[in-house]
């Protein structure tokens, strides 16, 4: 079976449930965005929300996707950089515990952390202090890190370091890996549009984007955005929330329905969708089944706080995945 390597910001997620959105205004954080903050503001947000309910988990977009793949039974590895501190130890131990090969590098800075502020309507806003994660550099990457893998999944949040992301995708392609890119956040796309368009055209085989990210990249609505993205790379996936997702490869278009779910927290929905989709590709399933499994995982994770499912939910998910694999293809395919 195919093996999948991921690279991204190695972060600790501090999930924080807000009682109102005034906290976001206080810290000048645009609702629904990922905002990079310095250590001082990170500490201010932590102190300003210390009275609210919190949970701790290893995180980062690509890490979440790799964790999901590992729970689905795929052989995986993750590359990132952490500090020599308790958060770094926690991150490494969580990879090992979940059967993920850790390819971690170490920095003298504190480990990065993402304070995920979950609004009463379940939208999440990230105040992210990258810390050690931002020290991951192109000099850390060697060709041998990529050998033996079939897919390479990279999060768009790394795009602030153009040299790192260019070196990573180049080494991946030189070792014959298929490259999947998650565009990560609309404000990241807007700030790096020219670079991202060049990257997708030259190196990327699969692009994941939600509606806002797709609009920031193309200036178009989901269906037209999927078409434009598919013209730049091999497979385009545009996620449209409760309306499902659109997958396009060449002239073939698939409309994937969203699963019914009670939304508690949208954190990790896109990351786990990517897990399910890449799992399908790793098993050479049809694109509609890849989308169905992605939709399943994305729908289940919004029913919990954070980007991790508990054991019982994973057991249910694995049973449903097997059902999807054995079922006939059933989603709408349009040949344009």
Please explain how this structure is put together.
- The chain contains twelve helices and 15 strands.
- The longest helix is centred in the last third of the chain and has 16 residues, at 311-326.
- The strands form two sheets. A ten-stranded mixed beta sheet has the order 6-5-1-9-10-11-12-13-14-15, with helices on both faces. The chain has a five-stranded mixed beta sheet with strand order 3-8-7-2-4.
- The protein has a single domain, classed as UDP-N-acetylmuramoyl-L-alanine:D-glutamate ligase, CATH 3.40.1190.20.
- 52% of the residues are buried.
- By secondary structure, it is an alpha/beta fold.
* Main CATH class: Alpha Beta
CATH architecture: 3-Layer(aba) Sandwich
Structural class: alpha/beta
User: Largest sheet at a glance?
Assistant: 10 strands, mixed
Helical fraction equals 25-40%
Distance between the termini: 32 Å
Helix-strand sequence: EEHEHEHEHEEEEHEHHEHHEEEHHHE
Give the secondary structure arrangement, pairings included.
Layout: E1 3-7, E2 11-17, H1 22-26, E3 34-36, H2 39-48, E4 54-59, H3 61-71, E5 75-83, H4 86-97, E6 101-107, E7 112-118, E8 124-129, E9 151-155, H5 162-174, E10 178-182, H6 186-191, H7 193-203, E11 206-210, H8 211-218, H9 222-232, E12 235-239, E13 245-249, E14 252-256, H10 269-282, H11 287-301, H12 311-326, E15 332-335
Parallel strand pairs: 1-5, 1-9, 2-7, 3-8, 5-6, 9-10, 10-11, 11-12
Antiparallel strand pairs: 2-4, 7-8, 12-13, 13-14, 14-15
Helix pairs in contact: 3-10, 8-9, 10-11, 11-12
């Amino acid at each position: 079976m195919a093996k999948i390597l991921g690279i991204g910001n190695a972060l600790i997620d501090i999930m924080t449930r807000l009682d109102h959105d005034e906290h976001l205004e206080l810290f000048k954080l645009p609702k629904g965005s990922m905002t990079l903050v310095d250590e001082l503001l990170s500490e201010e947000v932590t102190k300003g929300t210390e009275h609210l309910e919190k949970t701790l988990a290893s995180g980062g977009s690509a890490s979440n996707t790799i964790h999901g793949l590992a729970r689905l039974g795929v052989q995986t590895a993750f590359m990132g950089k952490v500090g020599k501190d308790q958060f770094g130890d926690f991150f490494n131990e969580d990879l090992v515990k979940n059967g993920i090969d850790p390819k971690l590098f170490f920095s003298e800075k504190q480990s990065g952390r993402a304070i995920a502020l979950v609004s009463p309507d379940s939208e999440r806003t990230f105040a992210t202090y990258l810390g050690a994660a931002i020290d991951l550099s192109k000099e850390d990457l060697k060709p041998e890190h990529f050998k033996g893998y079939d897919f390479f999944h990279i999060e768009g949040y790394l795009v602030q370091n153009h040299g790192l992301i260019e070196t990573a995708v180049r080494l991946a392609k030189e070792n014959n890996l298929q490259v999947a890119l998650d565009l990560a956040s609309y404000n990241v796309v807007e700030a790096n549009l020219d670079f991202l368009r060049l990257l997708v055209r030259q190196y990327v085989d699969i692009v994941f984007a939600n509606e806002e990210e797709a609009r920031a990249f193309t200036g178009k609505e989901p269906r037209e955005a999927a078409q434009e993205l598919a013209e730049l790379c091999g497979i385009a996936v545009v996620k449209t929330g409760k309306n499902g997702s659109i997958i396009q490869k060449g002239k073939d278009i698939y409309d994937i329905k969203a699963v019914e779910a009670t939304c508690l927290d949208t954190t990790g929905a896109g990351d786990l969708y990517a897990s399910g989709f890449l799992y399908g590709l790793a098993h050479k399933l049809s694109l509609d089944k890849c989308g169905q499994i992605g939709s399943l995982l994305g729908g289940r994770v919004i029913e919990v706080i954070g980007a991790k499912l508990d054991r019982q939910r994973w057991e249910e998910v694995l049973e449903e995945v097997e059902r999807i694999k054995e079922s006939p293809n059933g989603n709408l395919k349009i040949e344009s």
